[in-house]
Amino acid sequence: MKAMEKKILNEGKVFPGNILKVGSFLNHQLDTDFLMEVGREIAELYNGERIDKIVTIETSGVAVAFAAAAIMHVPVVYAKKHKSSNLSSDLYSAIVHSFTHNRDYTVYISKEYLHEGERVLIVDDFLAVGNALNGLMDIVGQAKAEVVGMAVAIEKGFQGGGDSLRAKGIRVESMAIIDEMTDTDVIFRTQSK
Amino acid sequence: MKAMEKKILNEGKVFPGNILKVGSFLNHQLDTDFLMEVGREIAELYNGERIDKIVTIETSGVAVAFAAAAIMHVPVVYAKKHKSSNLSSDLYSAIVHSFTHNRDYTVYISKEYLHEGERVLIVDDFLAVGNALNGLMDIVGQAKAEVVGMAVAIEKGFQGGGDSLRAKGIRVESMAIIDEMTDTDVIFRTQSK
Fold this sequence. Notes:
- By secondary structure, chain A is an alpha/beta fold.
- Helices cover 28% and strands 34% of the residues of chain A.
- Chain A has helices at residues 2-11, 32-45, 62-72, 131-142, 161-167, and strands at residues 13-15, 19-21, 29-30, 53-57, 76-79, 91-98, 103-110, 119-127, 146-156, 172-181, 186-188.
- In chain A, the strands form 3 sheets. Chain A has a 6-stranded mixed beta sheet, sandwiched between helices.
- In chain A, strand 4 (53-57), helix 3 (62-72) and strand 5 (76-79) form a beta-alpha-beta unit.
């Protein structure tokens, strides 16, 4: 998606440790019109597939997932990072390692909202080594639902998570794939669109 | 908004301690089509007001805020509950007491995304005693931006936060106001729509 590459080049900020800050449009401030465009792109890529539900993870996956779901007219279920009194006790869970925060955390989805046989699209803002997406895939599997594919806003291709998922036969669509990131430049993998 | 009252009656579950679970459509699973309807309602209520930005708080405020912002074509900024390496160090912050979790926490908004003179609509999923909304209002004030009003999906009227804000002259629009909640019934305050 050329518009995502352009947005990263115009607004993204690279920091040491391969950190790309895109808080101006993706995970602190949300550029609503742009994210609706992203949602339309995801819907178009998966046009023709039956999708019953989008699964994502709080917080920064919610806006992209919601935008795609609004176009596709399907519900979103977002995995929670904390058990709260509002969450039922009957839960699917998976352990996810966060490199950003350098710790393991557990994510939860209530069994009420994910069912056997449902066809699920997994959506997130970033794909790096793929820990969050693998955790979500694990949970979808626990529910005996089916992963139709994944869609992410930004894939850090050089961290390998996306290609490792593709090697397992999982369809992964990324609006932009970054193959190299330096202090002065961001180099994207060529994609068909 | 009659549709919200109906949704609460059909899908909400009341638990001891005045807990209303609406995870099927508002804060775990997201009923996207319904939330877009809520977004349209909020946009219509504030039609005629200049609004530059919607401010909310992660996680459960994001979907409602995003839906309203998509209709109004304005950006969302969501306050974060954790400082992460992705967050700049130049922040507005406020301390919020959570009754659900019985603790104080600090919420942050980067100074990059909130500016003097901006006209802000504050949106959230729930309004009970009003701590989260007061924290957001505090942050908007620190930025010397202006609160045009607030919009929430569900107000627990019996907890007084909404009326206390209204008494201060702040416009608060709630899609449904619950005046009484028992094990068997939810009683709504009569509103014009």
